[in-house]
Write a structure and sequence with these properties.
This protein is of the alpha/beta class. The protein has 15 helices and 11 strands.
């Protein structure tokens, strides 16, 4: 996760989440967790990295035990995700437990199951943010999810959740067919008061492996970032919504270089990136699966570190794979020789998916052709 406005424009929309992550990192070594509590889903999104697989799920007692272990590990920023987490009958019980432990919680839901009752419960529990995917206007979104009417449900969910005072994030995937509608996503974010728009680079795994033509080119990414720089980092378009980039750490390096060319001082951003590398694999981030298995990333299920029910989460950070992924001095190829390797680190997810080498170069890097 790379927060461009926070880095370069002094935006503090997500500062509370970042403070929670950094406090947990200092306490137990874990800053943030994506916890996939179920792989069941009521949508059939064309790009889904899970590809429709459904693995066994832990019981209520077991997920509550993992929640306690997260509390013991420093209370990392926790993204409760899926699948569709609202399909779990005990999801409110789990969310309450996490909040009772003092954990900052972001619920990632597709929005189609959010009604008045759900919105009220989430508000009563004090969930810190609700993240909902949106891929464009109705025809584009419904084609992506393969569920007619899903766009309408998302818009209703955003209104309901906003009316109950919940903080919102709009998520999307930067695919070629989504690119023409990025402005629309920020318009929707502004209309419903979303604090951030999270744009994750397209990853060709799961169902997405059949859609490689949707992978944006480097120039398409650069054009998008140039628009962000002119209109939202240097300009004031679309209010205060954060630009949150997923799985593309070199985007921040590109923005930094472009701002330097324009004569802007980027020293504060550089210092922040030196303090905390943009590529989070092996640097405080872990993923937990529906069975409790712990991975370097929810995209890197070949790299199992242990199990959250059986192992102390803090001890898993000593796993050789974890330590290697977080050690920029071990990177190979262009990432290894890059002057920004300690600030960026390249996406370890994409290095492995595209090259088969976890420590190899990230071929999607925007500062090297």
């Amino acid at each position: 996760m790379t927060h461009l406005k926070s880095l370069f424009a002094g935006n503090d929309a997500l500062s509370a989440a970042e403070r929670a992550a950094m406090a947990s990192l200092r306490m137990g070594g874990i800053s943030s967790v994506i916890w996939v509590v179920t792989e069941r889903c009521n949508l059939r999104c064309i790009h889904c990295y899970e590809g429709g697989r459904v693995t066994p799920e832990l019981s209520t007692e077991e997920v509550l035990k993992i929640a306690e272990r997260l509390g013991e590990a420093g209370r990392p920023l926790t993204f409760v995700s899926g699948g569709e987490p609202l399909l779990r009958d005990d999801i409110m019980i789990l969310l309450r437990k996490l909040k009772d432990l003092g954990i900052r919680v972001i619920l990632s839901t597709n929005g189609t199951l959010v009604d008045e009752k759900v919105a009220r419960e989430l508000a009563d529990l004090g969930v810190d943010n609700v993240a909902i995917p949106l891929y464009g206007p109705e025809d584009v979104h419904d084609a992506f999810t393969r569920m007619p009417g899903s766009h309408e449900r998302v818009i209703k969910a955003l209104k309901l959740l906003g009316d109950h005072g919940l903080n919102l994030t709009i998520k999307t995937v930067v695919a070629r067919r989504v690119l023409p509608h990025i402005r629309y996503l920020f318009d929707v974010a502004e209309r419903y008061g979303a604090k951030a728009v999270y744009l994750c680079d397209f990853i060709p795994v799961g169902r997405g492996a059949l859609l490689r033509e949707e992978i944006p080119s480097k120039d398409e990414w650069r054009s998008l970032l140039d628009w962000f720089i002119d209109e939202m980092i240097l300009g004031d378009a679309h209010g205060g919504a954060e630009i949150d980039i997923g799985l593309h750490p070199s985007t921040a390096i590109y923005v930094m270089e472009r701002l330097r060319e324009k004569g802007y001082d980027t020293s504060s951003a550089e210092e922040r990136m030196r303090t905390r590398r943009l590529s989070v694999e092996g640097r405080g981030f872990i993923s937990i699966s529906p069975t409790g298995d712990v991975y370097l990333s929810n995209y890197l299920t070949d790299f199992r570190l242990g199990n959250a029910l059986q192992d102390d989460l803090r001890e898993l950070l000593n796993h050789p794979l974890y330590r290697a992924a977080g050690d920029s001095s071990q990177l190979r190829g262009r990432c290894g020789s890059c002057p920004y390797r300690d600030m960026c680190g390249g996406s370890r997810v994409k290095a492995y998916i595209y090259t088969g080498d976890l420590l190899g170069e990230d071929p999607t890097c925007l500062i090297q052709d």
